[in-house]
Fold:
Amino acid sequence: MTGALFKANFWSSDILSTAGYDCIIQHLNNGRKNCKEFEDFLKERASIEEKYGKDLLNLSRKKPCGQSEINTLKRALEVFKQQIDSVAQCHIQLAQTLREEARKMEEFREKQKLQRKKTELLMDTAHKQKSLQFKKTMDAKKNYEQKCRDKDEAEQAVHRSANLVNVKQQEKLFVKLATAKTAVEDSDKTYMMQINTLDKVREDWQSEHIKACEIFEAQECERINFFRNALWLHLNQLSQQCVRSDDMYEEVRKSLEACSIEKDIAYFVSHRKTGQTPPAPIMYENFYCPQKNTAPQGKAPGPNLARRGPLPVPKTLPDDPDYSLVDNYSLIYQ
Structure:
């Protein structure tokens, strides 16, 4: 806390000037505006967090994510969906927390506004009294100076009329001079009275100005401290949100560490297996002699017999219709 900087540094040599006071008020107004901007920032951030949380919640609960997985990976995915749901809830809770912090900032602003209002009313009154009394004093001064000039003119007129024979005229001049002297005395008293009053008003204003500076400096220290703490708390809340989210993600990582590829494969085989005997080879079947066809399908059989039986055994009988002898060659009749 600085303590006495405002009251020592916001003066002006002009008695009618309010430059120092106006500068302080402008600074306080800017500070209040800054608090309002941070308050609006918190509210908007809360809306973002709430929307993100709700969107994440809908995603977790409505969008399929590996729903046909089995065994250990299925359990890991279930933990994943549960933790995403929890993260979404955390964001929604954070939105509520941010709105509460924004409400506190608003209450602080309004409290300082009411405190300032009392001091500002006193200062406005002091400024008006000072200005009014200064005007009265300047008017009294002008009147006093004019009466002095009137008296001087009356004296000069008396001196000029010293050799005049007209006594009546001289008496008039003496009466006018006496009247002028009386007017000077009266205006002098009035002027002095206004000067004294102005000095009293100035002292009162100066005292109020010092008090106002002390109050405003204390308020500004309080505002800066409150604003700083609010921002610090906001960052702590965001960090805590990250830590909580990471804790939830860690639960998913642990479930993934427990995921076993071998177990999932074995589980699938155990629950979905269809048999252990593969199909037998498909055998070739001869249309005419199915009992002698032993060659498996896909393998070439013996010579193509064009769907005929085995070759007949040659005979040497000349009258055999299946054979004929031509120059000692035997021709097979196909």
